[in-house]
Design a protein that fits this description.
By secondary structure, the protein is an all-alpha fold. Helices cover 51% and strands 0% of the residues.
Length: 98
């Protein structure tokens, strides 16, 4: 089959696009969350038997499947400038019968 404008349209409909959520990943996360909810008491018992450092590692590993992953950000200062946020406090003073 040759690649024509029609086959390109069909391929484009099937491909992953930026900004669209991956249904498989979303479905897997939901299923894993359901699995964790259904086995919460047993998981709790198992976690209590672990050493503190192993317990923290296990919790962090499980959290990856349920909580969204956050990206770190970096703040870069401009050259020759202080790029600190400026906070202005405005206080309204009322006098008399105003």
């Amino acid at each position: 089959m040759s690649f024509t404008s029609e086959t390109a349209k069909q391929a484009g409909k099937k491909s992953t696009r930026a900004g669209k959520k991956n249904k498989t990943t979303q479905e897997t996360r939901e299923r894993f969350k359901t699995l964790l909810d259904a086995n919460f008491d047993k998981i709790q018992e198992d976690l209590e038997q672990l050493a503190p450092d192993q317990r923290i590692k296990a919790l962090l590993d499980l959290a990856k499947f349920v909580l969204p992953t956050l990206r770190s950000t970096e703040l870069k200062a401009g050259e020759g400038e202080d790029n600190f946020p400026t906070i202005t406090i405005v206080r309204e003073i009322k006098r008399g019968n105003e």
